[in-house]
Batch of 2 targets.
Target 1
Amino acid sequence: MDNKFNDTFREVLRSLVTEGKSVSISGLGTFKTVHEKQHEAENEEGHKVLMPPKDTIEFIAEGK
Amino acid sequence: MERVSHVKFVEILSDKLGISEEETVKKLTEFTIQVKKKAAAGDVVIDGLGTFSLVDNKLAFSPDESFELEVNHSYAGMLPVTIDEPVAVKSEPDKAAKKEAEEAAEGTPTGVKKGKSTTDDLEPVTDDAFEEEEFVDVIGEQDPFEIEDEEPFDLDDDDSAKPTDKKKTGKPEIEAETAADKARLAATAEEDKKKRQKEEESEEAEALVAAVLAKKTAEEETTTKTPSETGETTSDEASKSAADADEKSGKAAAAKPSDTEKKADDTTEQESTPEPVSDDGIKPEWVESSDIAKPGDRSQGNEDADSADKTSDPKKAKAGKTATADSDKKAKPKEIPAYDRNRPDSNTGTIVAILLAALVIIVAALYFFGFIPGAPSTATDPVITEQQAPPAAEQPADVPVPAEATPDLSEREVLAREEAVPDVTAQPDQPTGDRPSDVAITPPATETAQTPQTAMQPLSAVAASAFGLRGGMDTSIMRPYTIVLHSLDNRADAEREAGALNRAGFRSTYFQVQLPTGERRWRVSIGQFASISTAVEASQGLPEPYLSNNFISRIESYNP
């Protein structure tokens, strides 16, 4: 596999996803960001805590 | 969310590679086939992107950590926040810095303790602490004002004069009553003793006068009549002289005429007895110690009697009267010395009585003013009451307080309140732990242990206007809750965003955070809130895009 192509592919994909864009690649699937809102939870010591929001990467494989 | 199609992605990629789109499509297709092929055999790891794997005959992707952090840059470094931690106000920046250093030493990047928060040690001072002061004051007010007072102890009071007052009190009053009875008994005994002495003196004076007259009469009879007639006439003359003496003694006894008459009658009865009166019939001490017992005086009296007899022998009545008058003249000066002779005894009794009375009064006064243990403080004198009265809280419940003393107790109450007020208001800026015993007033249980949090002020001490979504930031409030809207990688952008929000009317600020990767970010937030719940409530009213993308965090430090 061409290393140059691999590095460029990684850079472009990260940039687009980081910008919050949904990137679809034929043969693989779609990369996108998902925002997870803040929510209450219970920590390991049993105290109620407010979990911070979070932006995560989601990958949806291309269906057959 | 903006969508990037496969064609668009190829265009961007061809531009980056500097090759044609066809060649880019060819290489991209070859890349996807190899990933799928290798994923079927195992994980395909692409550095800086993630790991492809085949799960349930379906391709899966797990992003690389750096890729994850980059995507989550807005919220990077945020940790769970314990709900409803108290917010404090800093009073000294050095203390805040010290606190941050301590928190950093505990290993939490953001200064938030795991588990129990540092502010959990804070015991918010509310009005409860001051209510206890008021309770003590109320306790102090209770006893003095609720209990009625007995009448003040008075030595001159009669027992029957105030029976109801005496019944109100308990043991102390009984003791006081006993002391009063003793005083009254002593005074009565002294008065009786004086009366008896006066009566004895009067009797003795009458007896002396009668004896003198009887002697004179006997002498006259012996000089004028024969010895054979002397026995009869002597008794007759003695009776007459005694009768005259009765009259004279009645005049002489000016102080108590009725008593003197009675005594004179008694004396007459005694003198009229057949037995002859002689010096032997007179009490020895009466004659020996008296001035009239001096021979000169008696001879002078006899001479006067003789001369009178010589001049008036024919008229015995006149002579008797004259002799009686003379004897009366002699008796009067003799009577006074006779009284003087007994005066030392009467003075001693009086002195003893006075001393006893004074002693009783002193003891009663000591008892009255509480110098004797267990004695109640029942003084009617306001000043003394104030001096003797113990502190209200220490005053026993059964101690009565006179109604006259109420103004002083009220004054004490006012003073106590005036002393208590500065504890609450004099040092409003003092940290909780430094507050002096909520203290005096307040019981030790309400005191907060001195901790590094002493630089903080309780939330109750902060004005309500210091919190909210709009207004100006109060940087004295330590670690308030806030709503984060932006997380930027440079300070200039953060400052610009914060300024824009401030112009829009929000109280906004920006603060720097350091991510676990070592990267620094600038976050822009709006509002200051005392609790997380109020912050969440405020965030519900924000417009988009902030409504769906905000976070409640705590401001660890203001604009650097």
Note: The mean pLDDT of chain A is 89.
Target 2
Amino acid sequence: MKDRSKKYMNPYLAGFLLGVVLLAAFYFTGEGLGASGAMKRVDIAVVNTVAPEHAQNSSFYSKYIADGESPLRNRLVFMVIGVFFGGLLSGILAGRLKWKVEHSPKISSKTRLIMAGIGGVLFGVGAQFGRGCTSGAALSGMASLSTAGFLAMLTIFGTGYLFAFFFRKFWI
Amino acid sequence: MKEEIIVSGRANPNIDPVLNIWHWHIPAYLFLGGLAAGLLFFSALYFLQGKDNKYFTAVKVAPVIAPIAISLGLVFLILDLKHKLFFWQLLTTVRLESPMSWGAWTLTIVTPLSIIWVATYLKEIMPDADFKNKLLKKISAWFIVLKPDQTRPNWDWRYGWLRNFEQFSQKRRVGLAWALLVLAVILGVYTGILLSAFNARPLWNTSILGPLFLVSGLSTGAATIMLMTRDHEERKMFSKIDLLLIGIELFLIIHLFMGFLASTQVQIEAAQLFLGGEYTVPFWGFVVVLGLIFPAVMEILELRGFKVPVIIPAGLILIGGLIFRFIMVEAGQVTRYLY
């Protein structure tokens, strides 16, 4: 294994910077960060295009399309676009921009992609039940000292820790 | 009680004429025309500078796309017409005061010239014409025959007059290149002037659109060459050219808005569409930041020695150029003089 310390930022520094980003988000927009919100809005936009009637009748979708504006016209969508291009820039600066699937040598790329996909879907559904994901509920919630934020953080990482043992074959 | 006195029927829907008749065809065509202009410009320019082997892709390979892009664009233009079978009537008249007439004539001359220009290099860039694809084989058999021996190129023109015409054109490449150089600039400017000739559309009615569309077309052309070339030096050169073009484009965009804001109320309102209005996010986010500034940063990083896959900056520039034309055509049709 090559020297990774130079390729990746010090995690403590990165965590601190993430906090600064969160603070900036509160300062400029009055709200925290959120990643699943963008995905949710893409989903809503797709449903609204394919089956507008269903979207209008559903109590979940209709909230986001009631004002007639596109559900994609939201700061979270642009935040995620920014995350994508910022990640790209960071990859270039660190010299590790390559087309590859990161996975352990014991599983194939296909397994990794399928399992990550299923995990992502489950997490997306869970984030809707929990009213937010790691960034939206846990990170932004804890930053505003909300009890729900702390609970979200504990349950997300706690359950992850508990269940990791059973699903480790999909990952390592 | 809130009283409402209706003093005019203007508030009724569709009383004021609504002109939104240009849909996707026009911006798509403007993009393809600008791209073709860029490719032909660089090809002719570097040929005339005697760098046809140094910048092999730019001079000989990339212009292959130009006639394809123009033809596709012309198909879009005809699809846009209400009376499609009357398109040829543009070529029955010359009107120097009409940009559409300029465009029709420029395209009529540029299209065959670009095909001839590409054909004079065909033996160099395609030495092997033994296609596996059946359709390609059939179509190519109309023009060429495969040679029985193993020399390269392994094909020749099917008819003697094609061979003679190739030699005739190859001897006149300098003249061809000059013609293409000038016509490419006209084609590039015309894609913008086509819009700015509409004096009823405040957003379009500015002479900056001509140079702006030309520079944007050249930039998409340079990006395409960057994508196609395998030569590191050539890519670096076009990366630098592209950086310069992006700089000019940003300068022109700033001047576009300065001009609007210093002008009459309708122009100010047209600019407001982009400065807080409906088109603010798509324009500044997707055209200026993701289509110009971000690829420029990546190109600077690459010139500094960082490894950047060329598809990212070049692809962003191409997509940005396309979105730019869509936004300009869409937003232009929203702006008007009526109150």
Note: Chain A touches chain B at residues 73, 78, 81, 85, 88-89, 92-93, 95, 97, 99 (CB under 8 Å).
